[in-house]
Amino acid sequence: MSGISGFLYNILAWINGIVGNYGVSIIIFTFLMRMVCMPFDYKSRKGMRKMALIQPKLNALQQKYGNDKQKLQQKQAELMRKEGYNPLSGCLPMLLTWPLMIAMFSAMRDIANEQLVLQAFRYIAGEADVIMADEKFLWVKNLWMTDSFFAPSLPDVNSLRVVPFAVWQRAFAAMQGNEQMFANFNQVCQNAGIVINAESFVSADTLNATLDLIASKNLLGTPQYVPGMENVSFILFSISVFQNFNGLLILPVLAGVTQVLQTKFMNAQQPQQPAANGANPNQGKFMKWFFPCLSVFFCLSSNAGFALYWVISSVVSSVQGIVINKILEKKDGEKKEENIIGKGSVK
Questions:
Q1: Cβ within 8 Å of residue 286, ≥6 positions away
Q2: How many Å apart are CA 87 and CA 236, to the nearest integer?
Q3: Could you say which of 96, 105, 259, 286 has the lowest number of CB atoms within 10 Å?
Q4: What pLDDT band is residue 253 in, cutting at 50, 70 and 90?
Q5: Which residue did the predictor score with more confidence, 335 or 105?
Q6: Burial class, 273, CB count within 10 angstroms (exposed 0-12 / middle 13-18 / buried 19+)
Q7: Which residues share a beta bridge with 137?
Q8: What is the pLDDT averaged over residues 154-162?
Q9: DSSP line for 148-212
Q10: Confidence (pTM)
Q11: Which pLDDT band, with edges at 50, 70 and 90, does 346 fall under?
């Protein structure tokens, strides 16, 4: 893990050490991260609001000097200087938060992968009931599997194959610290006639070979499908509905809904502006539905912990946007009053 990612990993683990539930920990962690990003969000929204206010003037210059590109650029630069607007003020603050966002995603992915591997070890050691008790969150039976009818509630070999072998090594070392669990794990492996140790996870090849052994010995159990719902094929994909499904698809759906509402709130809170010359009106409609669909896809292909983060982050971001725009509207109103008073005063 990188420095920032490792730091955030430790913060999330520390929060969980206090509250004792990763679902609640992710909510608290997400709220803290949004608070850290709020100053940058404020700067970005302030810049976008300023751009919306001067856009009609820019469009007027475009119509007047559209045939003289050099003159148009000169007049646009003069207008931006006069209005005190920096073209980078809308996007640069948000770009500065990207390294933090990437590190946060990495930290959450590392914790999810590590917990999933530990669940596999605990299941092999005969602690399936402990997994179901520890990782439950509301309707989700296991926070580290997908909130879906199409995902099992306990880890399976297919979900484990995508975990980097370095995470396996770290999780195996953590399991060795639990003497009773480690003894039970070794006993089950001996009864199955296989040996699983730290050397089993030193490379991708040894990891795949170990997972093949685990699957062949049925150490993670046999998936139980709803009759007639195993590998149902569609045009581009196939699905299976599990009897011991992990969730109700609520978080992926909420991710799409909150993204729609967030986009709606943002558009409603920004000053209305005429479309720039040559703008495609269908582009806005496409983006309106593209991001919600992308959100649903991400949450359907990730664990419920990530989907929970996505939903909470969208909600907090929407609330922040409302608060920030109220502040900006108040400042704009005060500035207009000052200008009116200034124009009406005797000089």
A1: none
A2: 42
A3: 286
A4: very high
A5: 105
A6: middle
A7: 140
A8: 84
A9: STTSBSS--HHHHTTS-HHHHHHHHHHHHTSHHHHHHHHHHHHHTT----GGGGSSHHHHHHHHH
A10: 0.79
A11: very low
State both tokens at 57.
């003037």
**58-93, pLDDT tens digit by residue?**
778 777 776 767 777 777 777 777 767 766 665 666
* Residue owning tokens 């919306």: 52
φ, ψ for residue 239, nearest 5 deg: -130, 160
Going by C-alpha positions, the residue among 112, 243, 205, 208 that lies closest to residue 167 is 112
Which range among 92-96, 195-199, 292-296 shows the weakest confidence by mean pLDDT?
92-96
- Taking the C-alpha atoms of residue 253 and residue 146, their distance in angstroms, rounded to an integer, is 12
CA–CA distance, 213 with 210 (Å, rounded to integer): 5
Cβ atoms of 316 and 29 within 8 Å: the answer is no
The two structure tokens encoding residue 265? 């709130």
Mean pLDDT estimate for the chain: 80
Percent of the chain scored above 90 by pLDDT? Answer: 9
Which residue stretches of the chain are H helix? Answer: 3-19, 22-65, 69-83, 92-96, 98-124, 128-134, 157-160, 165-176, 179-191, 204-216, 250-269, 281-300, 304-344
Please say whether the beta carbons of 58 and 87 come within 8 A.
no
Spatial neighbors of 295 by CB under 8 A, at least 6 apart, are 255, 256, 258, 259, 310, 314
- The first and second tokens of residue 139, run together, are 């309707």
Three-state secondary structure call for residue 87: coil
